[in-house]
Design brief:
About 10% of the residues lie in helices and about 50% in strands. It has two helices and 22 strands. The strands form six sheets. A five-stranded antiparallel beta sheet has the order 12-13-15-18-17, with no helix packed on it. The chain is mainly beta. The protein starts with a helix and ends in a 12-residue tail after the last strand.
């Protein structure tokens, strides 16, 4: 009985040491890979330079986009990420999440830093490198820096989709809005009809129009949202249309500013084989049926209407 007790106690000790050994090697495998740092941009558009024909990563003044730093193989002793040029932008928030996966019995870790930013002035900006400190050594991102164009959104431009890291690909959606009127020159009090048509194609969700500013007019919506299909420049679009009756109250040229169109587009999650921590779930972003959603904007054209005073009546007016 004594020998049985002795063997039992030693077996438990051996089992305890074995478990600790396995856990230590498990952690070493996770964090022993070489560290790589990637720098990406999300929620941008590629606009073609008319001079060079090259695509230019572009965002618009005051509209949010994302700077993403991906650290692959980071040690458990985390160090802060530094992005050269981040101080050029307004940072609305930072999200962090970790993805761990196992491929061919090898574990790997990936930490994502997502900065939600905007810029309030036009220009060409250089972002990067993104840097981290690991074992007293500075590791720079690949690519080391990215060039971004910030410009004011032009009235009447088409909002088109690009992939998340800004590389060119076939456009997945298009949205634009056209304002039109049935007369450009009218007299005070003469009614005219304003039409607002929102064109969309591709995977578009929750599209909506902000209130149209109509200074100098009495206005009334005469047609609720109509929905139909229309071909434009060889492409089929879904069209949402509203119509308004306008009665001008002032003389002179009246400007109708562009109307803002807000819409959402789905963003597919990045699936990684063998991942057992879902990166989007821990990213704090809304997820429905495997997709995230990003808000986008489009801007319509503007209009000018010339309002004339009523002509003087030269005839005789009988009075009572």
């Amino acid at each position: 009985m004594f020998l049985d007790y002795f063997y039992k106690q030693n077996f438990l000790k051996f089992l305890f040491v074995l478990i600790i050994f396995i856990n230590i090697n498990f952690v070493k495998k996770i964090y022993s890979t070489d560290i790589r740092v990637n720098l990406e941009l999300e929620d941008i558009q590629n606009l073609t330079d008319p001079k060079t024909g090259q695509n230019i990563p572009t965002v618009f003044v005051g509209e949010n986009f994302k700077i993403k730093v991906i650290v692959i193989g980071q040690d458990k002793d985390d160090s802060d990420v530094e992005i050269v040029g981040l101080d050029q932008f307004n940072v609305a928030g930072i999200n962090q999440f970790i993805n761990m996966s196992m491929i061919n019995s090898e574990f790997s870790s990936q930490k994502n830093y997502i900065y939600d930013v905007s810029c309030l002035k036009e220009g060409i900006f250089t972002i990067g490198p993104a840097k981290i400190m690991q074992n007293n050594k500075t590791i720079n991102s690949v690519p080391e820096n990215l060039v971004l164009q910030v410009k004011k959104r032009t009235a009447g431009t088409v909002a088109r989709g690009t992939n998340q890291n800004g590389l060119s690909q076939e456009q997945s959606y298009e949205v634009f809005c056209k304002l039109s009127i049935d007369a450009k020159t009218v007299f005070v009090g003469q009614p005219l009809v304003l039409s607002a048509k929102v064109y969309s194609r591709g995977n578009i969700l929750q599209i909506g129009m902000e209130k149209i500013n109509l200074p100098g007019f009495i206005s009334k919506e005469i047609q609720k949202v109509g929905k139909y299909q229309e071909e434009f420049e060889g492409k089929n679009y879904t069209v949402l249309e509203k119509k308004f009756l306008l009665l001008p109250q002032e003389t002179g040229r009246i400007d109708i500013d562009p109307v803002v169109i807000n819409f959402n587009t789905p963003v597919k999650r990045k699936n990684r084989r063998g991942g057992f921590f879902d990166d989007d779930f821990f990213g704090g972003l809304p997820v429905f049926f495997g997709e995230n959603y990003q808000q986008k904007k489009a801007l319509s054209n503007n209009l000018q209407i010339n309002v004339l005073p009523l002509p003087e009546y030269a005839g005789v007016v009988d009075g009572v």
